[in-house]
Design brief:
Beta Polymerase, domain 2, single chain, 505 residues, 37% helix
């Protein structure tokens, strides 16, 4: 049952008017106080000031989320000509307000709505992609048009006849962005000669994907131990395929008799060349900005070449120690927001960069993510980042993740001042940018200290880790290029013992 909302006036003048704006959007779409659940007490001291939930039928979540996004982004901010921005993650809508403060609207499935309950899951997205691929390969004679929906009847036929996935059909769905992404990616795969698998079947978390492939990965890691090589940290770094396309009736049992990384990778490569087995890594298209007539996906074959050639492909990637035009992009403040991240460039292109930030919300999960124009292309966790840095420059980036995260808490009196000082000194050293009301302004150490001393734990943890990586690169100029190249190979799953797959994005 919905809980009655506290008076919005409790939020104070900074937030109350904007909270009324958002709740009026919800009312305009037909939701009243009986429908809207307050997740927790209104609290202007928290990063999520206002946290609301709407329960809807599972299969309606995507449509309703899109409707609410349209309503919110069309709403004029009270007292301003500007409109609201949103950040959408599955069916969670975050509305940035000021600094790190935001409102949140969650579109949840009605309790008892099946195994798909909760936020949109990776399993649902990947299984749905398998179904879209089956439609394109078997049930239509031309490319899928992302301007048009695919009927439930066609999707169910594809699911029943050609797919082996871990998610029940009733729990599958795709919002507008995922529908576009699935259509474009399925079209691209079908157009590639390497992916024209005869009488194709599609696997995700079921069949050989849940047995032979997982068992092969375990044997690869066991073999690397015997070779005194570094083990993979997870299966994605060996092979990041989200779905597998296989020839109908393909016998995968020979894989069970192979025990070395070289033998296993050779088997996958041979089946790829013979067009019997293709692993596919899907990267969601976050924004399709091309004209509808020309919108397309991109396609790459990964890890078919020897390891030495993989390393040679990235030999031009460099660390250039200068702001924005190469090396890094570092904001402290931009358009009223105090940025939690740092960007590390490896080339001259706009999207030749890593994003360095905490991806764990209110927990310690600092990572670097390989960015692209419309999709991310892989991550490298903080512990692995430190290991790579220290391999080339010993002790350049100490790593004690949990203890460090705890030391960033404002309640940790022993470390609060030292953490604040370190962040601020590095902001000055690396000439952080401050864009205030459209103009770049300079801040000195004392000005930074006043603000940083009050920033929440996850912000301090995230920003300082990014700054420490920049410092490690600056302090080791003869090794910096090698570090950047190694980070790229790790994040993109192109390590020496990684296996063949295709990437569509």
């Amino acid at each position: 049952m919905a809980t009655r909302q506290n008076s919005i006036t409790n939020l104070g003048t900074d937030f109350a008017a904007r909270a009324r704006d958002i709740t009026s959007c919800l009312r305009d779409e037909g939701y009243n106080t009986r429908d809207i659940i307050e997740v927790r007490q209104l609290d202007p001291t928290k990063s999520i000031v206002l946290n609301l939930r709407i329960d809807v039928p599972q299969r309606e979540r995507g449509r309703i989320t899109n409707t609410l996004v349209t309503a919110i982004t069309s709403k004029s901010i009270t007292g301003s000509r500007e409109t609201y921005d949103v950040e959408v993650n599955g069916n969670v809508i975050d509305i940035p307000i000021v600094g790190n403060k935001k409102f949140r609207v969650q579109v949840k499935p009605i309790q008892g709505g099946g195994s798909g309950a909760g936020s949109a899951s990776t399993a649902i997205n990947e299984s749905m992609f398998a179904v879209y691929c089956a439609v394109r390969y078997h049930l239509v004679t031309q490319d899928l048009d992302f301007r048009q929906p695919i009927s439930d009847e066609v999707l169910r036929q594809a699911y029943n006849d050609y797919c082996f996935v871990s998610v029940p059909f009733e729990d599958l769905w795709a919002d507008t962005v995922w529908h576009k992404s699935h259509c474009l990616a399925a079209n691209k795969l079908y157009s590639q000669p390497q992916c024209r698998v005869q009488d194709a079947r599609f696997y995700r978390g079921s069949g050989f994907d849940d047995k032979e492939i997982k068992d092969a990965y375990k044997r690869v890691n066991a073999n690397l131990v015997t070779l005194n090589e570094t083990k993979f940290t997870d299966e994605d770094k060996w092979n990041p395929s989200d779905i597998w396309i296989a020839k109908r009736g393909l016998d995968m049992s020979p894989l069970n008799n192979l025990n070395t990384a070289a033998e296993i990778n050779k088997f996958l490569d041979e089946k790829f060349i013979s067009k019997e087995l293709v692993g596919v890594s899907l990267k969601k298209s976050e924004g399709i900005t091309e004209a509808i007539e020309t919108a397309n996906a991109r396609f790459e074959v990964m890890n078919q070449e020897p390891p030495a050639e993989r390393r040679a492909k990235v030999s031009s990637y460099k660390w250039i120690d200068r702001n924005s035009t190469g090396g890094y992009d570092l904001f402290f403040e931009n358009k009223g927001k105090q940025s939690i991240d740092v960007y590390l460039y490896y080339g001259s292109g706009e999207f030749d960069k890593f994003q360095l930030r905490n991806f764990g919300g209110q927990k310690a999960s600092w990572q670097i993510e390989l960015k692209g124009a419309t999709a991310a292309h892989g991550r490298c966790g903080g512990g692995n980042v430190a290991s790579i840095v220290n391999e080339y420059a010993p002790n350049a980036m100490p790593w004690d993740n949990t203890n460090f995260y705890n030391s960033c808490s404002l309640t940790n009196r022993n470390a609060r001042m030292s953490i604040t000082t370190e962040i601020c000194e590095l902001l000055v050293e690396f000439n952080a940018k401050n864009i205030i009301r459209g103009l770049e302004q300079q801040r000195d150490l004392a000005q930074y200290e006043v603000i940083v001393a009050r920033k929440p734990q996850e912000w301090r943890y995230s920003k300082l880790n990014g700054l420490r990586l920049l410092k490690a690169l600056r302090n080791n100029p003869t090794k910096a290029d090698q570090i950047v190249q190694a980070l790229y190979l790790f994040a993109s799953s192109q390590l020496d013992f990684s296996s063949v797959f295709v990437k569509v994005y």
